[in-house]
Write a structure and sequence with these properties.
There is one protein chain. With 293 residues, this protein is of the alpha/beta class. It has one domain: Rossmann fold (3-Layer(aba) Sandwich). The protein contains ten helices and eleven strands. The strands form two sheets. The chain has an eight-stranded mixed β-sheet, with helices on both faces. Helix 1 links the parallel strand 5 and strand 6. The longest helix has 15 residues. 43% of the residues are buried.
């Protein structure tokens, strides 16, 4: 499905129902926006992990502008600010009230920024493997120096400089770097087969070669009013857990969960535990659906 909003076209997909039968009543379920990472990827890698949650929430997946199945456009429009405003426009397009905002990695940056800008539209905030400012770039380079192979250090220069020339280079980057992204990575496992994402070189180059170097919401996190769950992976090389801990300290009454057997891709390393943490958080933080007779 596609929504024509804000001079672009955003691809989205819906999983799960909005109303469920509860005795003699109809009960509305939470609606969650699942915000993918990257930039430069799409929503499809999130589905295997989050789809089982569709029994508890209605899930809205979407691709950021210029990425995945969403429309391409001028690359200078592939910005964090536009990702935030596209998400709000999609919420309005779908006629939704408050939403559960769930973002991973770069999607977590979008999620934090959205919850700061639109607290009135955020029922719950869940951020996974993310950061609140640009210091992660320097720290990730330090960790790569400590843990990475020579091949990984070399290929990562394309990321730091925002200089991927084509999709093939970007796919090769993820292939080489996957042992760092996933703590449980096994190249011989069928489950570890690469997902056939639609990649956007322009989107990742614009981010890492530009706006991520000035990204910072750390001093605004106190404005977040929704119940918040912050999740990090103990072995995350690019969004290390100290940044998750920092986010949880700055958001009033936030819950923090560090997954001890995960790197950046917690959805790959500990998917069942991740789903349990999310579902338990929503119950514990008392999502109160409305009923229609």
């Amino acid at each position: 499905m596609r929504a024509k909003i804000r001079n672009t076209e955003i691809y989205f997909d819906v999983e799960g129902v909005g109303l469920v039968v509860d005795g003699s009543q109809l009960r509305s379920q939470p609606v969650a926006f699942i915000i993918h990472g990257g930039p430069g990827g799409d929503h499809t890698p999130d589905k295997p992990t989050f789809s089982p949650l569709s029994h508890k929430m209605q899930l809205i997946y979407f691709d950021h502008r210029g990425q995945g199945r969403s429309a391409r456009g001028p690359k200078e429009t592939y910005t964090l600010d536009n990702n935030i405003e596209d998400m709000e426009a999609l919420r309005q397009y779908l006629g939704l009230d408050k939403i559960v905002v769930l973002g991973t990695s770069y999607g977590g940056m979008v999620a934090l920024s959205y919850a700061i800008r639109y607290p009135q539209n955020t029922s719950h905030l869940i951020v996974i493997s993310t950061v609140a400012d640009s210091r992660f770039l320097r720290r990730a380079q330090e960790i790569l120096t400590e843990r990475g192979t020579e091949e990984q250090k070399a290929i990562a220069q394309r990321l730091w400089n925002g200089k991927f020339e084509n999709e093939e280079q970007l796919r090769e980057f993820f292939k080489v770097m996957m042992p760092l992204y996933s703590f449980t990575y096994d190249p011989n496992s069928h489950k570890q087969a690469s997902n056939p994402m639609i990649l956007s070189v322009d989107a990742i180059n614009v981010a890492f070669g530009g706006f991520l170097h000035s990204y910072s919401v750390l001093d605004q996190l106190h404005k977040i009013t929704s119940p918040t769950l912050v999740i990090g992976g103990r072995h995350d090389w690019i969004c290390p857990p100290e940044f998750s801990e920092e986010i949880a300290r700055e958001i009033p009454n936030a819950d923090l969960r560090i997954f001890e057997n995960s790197s950046h891709l917690i959805r790959v390393d500990e998917p069942e535990a991740l789903r349990d943490a999310i579902a338990g958080f929503l119950v514990y933080k008392s999502y109160r659906p409305t009923s229609d007779t």
